[in-house]
Write a structure and sequence with these properties.
Immunoglobulin-like
């Protein structure tokens, strides 16, 4: 009997020892610090907005890319926001890297593939509210009194703004045992505001996310845009710099200071194309300059732009339909140029102070039968791009633009209105490199060109 008791006691001691060893050497929670940023292009004085305020009430993360808002498994990254939401001016302060710290939380180690940002409803009470009696608003450059214009929301305050894996740098966010990681949410205000036909403003959120280093210069990309002929900053007008993925998707956009300097910060780890365009105070454009192979932490020195004379314009019509009747959709429209090896860049729209154009289709007499439609006009450089690989030794020296025909492709993506940026239609993205006369979509300085219509079907 005593032998059985001793054996049982020994087994219990061994089990406790194994448990303690597993606890001391096993998995530990990681810590995630969450911030928000937005290098803007649509800010005053060139852009239409002085301020764009949103009030963030929570940030959630999930390991599954397909999880719905009601599924289990969501982890709160900013628990302090629920009782004290933070109002953020997305246009912020020039050259300010981070707009706000949203929170810090411990989470289980693992790989996470979806993030949701929850905005407070406009009826919420906000401390030091800049929007008067609503929680989300904007103020117009044309209004010296800074009267708040409400930003209409829909599911942003309920299911949240979804940031899928395709909009997370590297496709996912990974936290190891005991690690501390910095996660930044980049909110592209300039691509997120829709002006409706009734003169009201609605939010169509465009967000990206990725791991950054909050205290390190290795999370920034900087340089100075100059006129390649004078070696001086572009005088007057507007200059836009975009940070893009290899497929031309714009991740960040910024307007340089008066001396031509710009900074993207924070930038998630990865390799990017940097694309710059400008229009000067006399209305003359510069060809797009594309520097490929740029990484977080790189300093580009000077980036020259090539004068290209008067702009060209590309106009066209986009239709949306369920297949049997017209239906509205939000649209993002881009001007694309080839840089070889089946790669394209989005050419930012300097004259419009944005990297892409944002539209909404509506019923109208000019629409084809059983469709809603929208018309667009894009002012673009009448020149091929100047292209060069990143020069780590100093200033950038891209090749001169190629001579000959200047060809463009127009790309458009459709989104469900009021759905926090969810794709619509099948397919949800379309392109055309043809004119309405079924010829190559080429442009010349000072002249308009009409692109072939883009027709979205199977829309909600």
């Amino acid at each position: 009997m005593r032998l059985r008791t001793c054996i049982g006691l020994l087994v219990a001691i061994i089990a406790v020892a194994i448990f303690l060893l597993s606890c001391s050497g096993g998995s530990k929670p990681g810590t995630v610090n969450t911030s928000i940023s937005d290098p803007p292009t649509c800010a005053a004085p060139q852009g239409p907005y002085r301020h764009v305020y949103v009030t963030v009430s929570d940030v959630l993360i999930h390991k599954s890319a397909s999880a719905s808002a009601s599924d289990a498994g969501w982890i709160d990254l900013a628990p302090g926001l629920k009782g004290n939401p933070v109002q953020v001016d997305l246009l912020g302060v020039a050259n300010q890297c981070f707009l706000a710290m949203l929170g810090s939380a411990e989470i289980d180690p693992g790989t996470y593939e979806q993030i949701r940002v929850i905005l407070a409803p406009n009826t919420a009470s906000v401390n030091n509210n800049k929007c008067g009696n609503v929680a989300n608003c904007l103020m117009l450059t044309s209004d010296p009194s800074n009267t708040p214009q409400p930003l209409q929301l829909s599911s942003e305050s309920q299911t949240g703004i979804k940031i899928p894996s395709g909009q997370i740098a590297g496709g996912s966010f990974t936290v190891g045992s005991g690690q501390t990681k910095d996660l930044n949410i980049d909110f592209d205000a300039c691509a997120s505001v829709v002006v409706q036909g009734n003169g009201q403003y609605r939010l169509k959120p465009v967000l990206h996310a990725g791991e950054v280093s909050l205290q390190s210069a290795s999370s920034s990309i900087s340089g100075t845009i100059i006129d390649g002929s004078t070696q001086l900053p572009v005088v007057g007008g507007n200059t836009i710099v975009a940070l893009e993925q290899a497929d031309g998707a714009v991740l960040m956009q910024a307007v340089p200071a008066s001396n031509g300097s710009f900074v993207f910060c924070p930038v998630a780890d990865g390799t990017y194309n940097l694309v710059a365009v400008a229009i000067d105070g006399s209305g003359n454009t510069y060809a797009a300059t594309a520097i490929t192979g740029v990484k977080a932490g790189d300093s580009l020195g000077t980036v020259p732009l090539t004068p290209a004379g008067l702009p060209a314009s590309i106009s066209g019509q986009i239709t949306t339909s369920t297949g049997s009747t017209g239906t509205i959709a939000d649209l993002s429209v881009s001007a694309l140029q080839s840089i070889g090896n089946s790669m394209f860049i989005t050419v930012p729209l300097a004259q419009q102070s944005a990297a892409t154009a944002t539209l909404t289709t509506a019923a109208g007499a000019s629409c084809p039968a059983s469709t809603d439609c929208a018309s667009y006009t894009l002012a673009v450089p009448a020149a091929n791009p100047s292209i060069g690989g990143f020069n780590s030794g100093g200033n950038q020296t891209p090749a001169a633009p190629a001579s000959g025909e200047v060809d463009y492709t127009v790309g458009a993506s459709a989104f469900i209105p009021g759905s926090a940026g969810q794709p619509d239609c099948s397919p949800s993205s379309m392109q055309t490199s043809l004119t309405d006369a079924i010829a190559t979509l080429s442009v010349t300085a000072g002249n308009p060109t009409t692109a072939a219509a883009l027709s979205f079907a199977s829309c909600q």
